[in-house]
Amino acid sequence: MASLWGGRFEKDMDDIVKKYNASIFFDQRMYNEDIDGSIAHVTMLGKQGIVSNEEKDQIIAGLEEIRKEIAEGKILFTVEDEDIHMGIESRLIDKIGDMGKKLHTSRSRNDQCQVDIRLYLRKEIYEILNSLCYLESVILEKAEKYEDKITVGFTHLQHAQPITIGFVFMAYFQMFKRDMERLTDTLERLNYNPLGACALAGTTMPIDRHLTSELLSFTAPTENAMDTVSDRDYSLEFLSDASISMMHLSRWAEEFAWWNSSEFSYIAIDDSFCTGSSIMPQKKNPDMAELIRGKVGRVYGDLMQLLTVMKGTPLAYNKDFQEDKESLFDAIDTWKATIDIFAKMLDKTEFRMDQIEKQLGKGFLNATDIAEHFAKQGIPFREAHAIVGHMVKACEKKGCDLEDLTDEELQAI
Fold first, then answer.
1. Rounded mean pLDDT, 11-28
2. Phi/psi at 323 (5° precision)
3. pLDDT band at 3, cuts 50/70/90?
4. Which one, of 108, 79, 127, 319, lies nearest residue 225 by Cα?
5. What pLDDT score was predicted for residue 275?
6. Which active-site residues does the annotation give?
7. N or C end of the chain: which has fewer CB within 10 A?
8. Beta-bridge partners for 220
9. pLDDT tens digits for 116-154?
10. Is 186 helix (H, G, I), strand (E, B) or coil?
11. How far is it, in rounded angstroms, from Cα 379 to Cα 385?
12. Among 403, 382, 402, 383, which Cα is nearest to 392's?
């Protein structure tokens, strides 16, 4: 198949180069966005008189037919298609003839690619925000259920102070709330229209970028064509958001793993989120919690991959930028799945209060409260802190709790 860009070439690409160059096998997931962008573009061309209304209507009808055929699995892309943009345009030309060749007027694959990614990422951000919202709802339900159930609070993995389980849940609620805020900020910054930037310098044709912005629900057109075609900040920002959120999920997954251990036995994770051992029949392993901890590394890697791609690229477009999609798609898929798995696991996990209560008498959890009690009586806090420290030392020597010290021992301290 002859390439749509091959007019000045005498030789076709080597087969190994075609395969190395092609992105169709991963970017075809954006076919809806590519068609939406093309329909908006040709609608604008029609309004501006760059194509006739009849040509516009036939191009849109052809694109909708192609959309339907892709959805029904009737179109199978190959390495010859190169990418989703060429794959759809070449089929449009096959379907409606030379009229289809007018679609690419006042457009480059450089700005077309940017439209597709922004539209696709915008859609996925909405879905991830919904998933995070569901996770937050599960957290709130659990926090209410355990709002008055006392557990051990830790610092440095040492018993620190008594807290409620609901309080623990609401700490994580705040983390995911910030994740949603970051993602909403990213959405605001990416929602600008690249169409019309073309290759790097815009076009001499009388296009209307405000119309395509309106048709595609973008806030406004981007302001500098060179920046537009070489910008991947929004993808980097999204990957940063994903990495931070995955870190939050990993932190809680870590707590699940040790809460589930025999030494703690604080929680009972539903069987549907655990696996067994191939040799030890008694095992019930918290594999989903452990796998979540592992998955965070791949999302970190996605961020580092794109940062590395971008660090040495001059203005404007470079082929390096084709490497922006696989890491982005991987992070989207991994983050979405992880949120959904964690929310369901959390919903089906119960706390074993009988086991937790056995731990409440250990580690002098009420020491800080006693020091603050002394401070309320007018004793300087540093002196109160030292007094309670001596009390703890006395208890360790005697092998008792703070409340077991006698009046004589307290007077001596």
1. 90
2. -80, 15
3. low
4. 108
5. 86
6. 156, 277
7. N
8. 192
9. 999 999 999 999 999 999 999 999 999 999 999 999 999
10. helix
11. 10
12. 402
